[in-house]
Write a structure and sequence with these properties.
4-stranded antiparallel sheet; single chain; alpha+beta; 9 helices
């Protein structure tokens, strides 16, 4: 079976399963705008938040070319693209999915310690963790990790293994850059821990200790956007550990100390923590 036939067959199988595919050129890049669509003169599918073919007959506009229409995928106009294709990609958001793209062993170790288990797909250098649900895509949300969902594409590497979990707050928090201004707390507010007393999901105290240590390291390693990193880290910690009453003043103090060592003020630490509690409804 030729490569062209293999890629097209994969695309048709994905389309039948409700996963919108698209062809990728060498280097894992999509086909760019055709001449007729230069500068989005055809209407600009990339400005839309749903998958589908653009007005021209050939696959262009990157992720927005993804479609589940088998007649389009198998059309003569797409034949040349499939001949040149080096791989198949898909639009996760169009399939109702979010992919956490983990690029190395350290990122995978972080995910195993921090994120809920879900379906995983091995990649060349790491793993894709796939959750059910959509969110804005974001690159470099932490070292070695990208989020691919709406208005993005991911290379198709198979169905993976494991049971797919619902998209958790801890993943959504990774794409947030700062709390809404309307939620900023007054300066006099101290850092509350919340009054949650749900069942503790942590098998051993080591899980919590490791999570706090990794959060400290994430703040310490920030080279830019420290303000956003602090808030995002607080949100991730609370989304994982904030509902069972495990966090203590000592844990919070460690996080605040790490943030202040990067130049954050005590007021910002308090505001970021309070806003994270508010965002998560704690």
């Amino acid at each position: 079976m030729s490569t062209t036939t293999t890629h097209l067959r994969t695309a048709l199988e994905l389309a039948a399963a409700g996963v919108p595919p698209l062809p990728l050129r060498a280097g894992k890049v999509p086909f760019g705008n055709c001449r007729a669509c230069a500068k989005n003169t055809c209407g600009g599918r990339p400005n839309m938040k749903t998958p589908g073919p653009c007005a021209c007959p050939a696959p262009c506009h990157a992720w927005a070319a993804a479609t589940t229409d088998r007649h389009i995928l198998n059309s003569p106009q797409w034949e040349a693209a499939w001949r040149r294709a080096a791989a198949v990609a898909y639009h996760p958001g169009g399939a109702g999915l979010t992919v956490v793209d983990l690029d190395n062993a350290a990122a995978i170790a972080w995910a195993r310690d921090t994120l809920p288990a879900t379906r995983t797909v091995p990649t060349t250098r790491g793993e894709h963790w796939i959750y059910e649900g959509v969110m804005p895509s974001a690159n470099a949300v932490r070292p070695g990790a990208d989020i691919k969902s709406l208005m993005a594409y991911a290379r198709w590497l198979g169905w993976g293994t494991g049971t797919m979990a619902a998209l958790p707050d801890s993943v959504r928090a990774l794409a947030l850059t700062d709390p809404p201004a309307a939620r900023r707390a007054p300066q006099a507010v101290s850092a509350p821990l919340g009054s949650q007393s749900g069942q503790c999901p942590h098998r051993t105290p080591v899980f919590l200790a490791r999570g706090i240590a990794m959060a400290e390291q994430s703040i310490t390693d920030a080279r830019e956007a420290v303000h956003a990193t602090v808030y995002r880290t607080f949100l991730a910690v609370l989304s994982t550990h904030g509902r069972c009453g495990c966090l203590t003043d000592t844990h919070v103090a460690r996080l605040f100390t790490a943030a202040q060592a990067k130049g954050e003020t005590p007021r910002h630490c308090t505001d970021a923590w309070t806003n994270a509690l508010t965002t998560l409804g704690l």
